[in-house]
Amino acid sequence: MLWVKSLHIVFVVSWFAGLFYLPRLFVYHAMATDSIGIERFKVMERKLYYGIMTPSALIAVASGLWLWLGYGIGGGWLYVKLFLVAILVAHHLWLGKLMADFRSDKNRRSDVFYRWINEIPALPVLVFAVLLVVFKPF
Ligand code: HEM
């Protein structure tokens, strides 16, 4: 069980690394004017999203489900945590849609917008999910 939990924590960390870094790339992509820079951001975003974020999300969720359904670790706290995870998965998919807009040069949002989604909702979800799983308040 401890190997599965270790795997879970490692891929949760990797997933969050991408959830924080991809919007940061969007900030600079939205400000870029040179075509070489714009094409470079498209490559970086695609590799981050499909090479790191999505595999990490899949392994983090699969190992979490294994801990819950395989080892029977759960409680009221887990249902609230699952709700938070659903928000994260929706955010992950939305970031993919925003990346597709950038890829086809259809982005119309400003760097200020992307500075906001750089932190929200990833940071509050991270804090509440970790507090829930460590304290298990109910
Ligand atoms: C469907 C998704 C997920 C499920 C079903 C799930 C389920 C679980 C379960 C059952 C445990 C074991 C708790 C224990 O042994 O005390 C656990 C541990 C943990 N989970 Fe998740 N989790 C999921 C996603 C996440 C996400 C997105 C985060 C990040 C915010 C996260 C952070 C953690 C941490 C830090 C631990 C270790 C807690 C400890 O050792 O006390 N999990 N998870």
> N- to C-terminal separation?
22 Å
Question: pLDDT below 50 for ≥5 consecutive residues: which ranges?
Answer: none
- The total beta strand count reads 0
Distinct small molecules: protoporphyrin IX containing FE
If you compute it from the alpha carbons, what radius of gyration comes out, rounded to the nearest whole angstrom? 17 Å
The residue fraction in helices comes out at over 70%
Number of domains: 1
Query: Mean of the pLDDT scores?
Result: 96
The coarse silhouette is: elongated
Q: Which descriptors apply to this entry?
A:
mainly alpha; 83% helix; 0% strand; binds protoporphyrin IX containing FE
Structure overview:
This protein has five helices and no strands. It is an all-alpha fold and 138 residues long. It has one domain. Helix 1 packs antiparallel against helix 4 and helix 3 runs antiparallel to helix 5. Helix content is 83%, strand content 0%. Bound molecules: protoporphyrin IX containing FE.
Q: How is this fold's topology laid out?
A:
Elements: H1 2-31, H2 35-70, H3 76-103, H4 111-117, H5 122-135
Helix pairs in contact: 1-2, 1-3, 1-4, 2-3, 3-5
The chain binds protoporphyrin IX containing FE (HEM).
The site of protoporphyrin IX containing FE (HEM) has 21 residues, from α1, α2, α3 and α5.
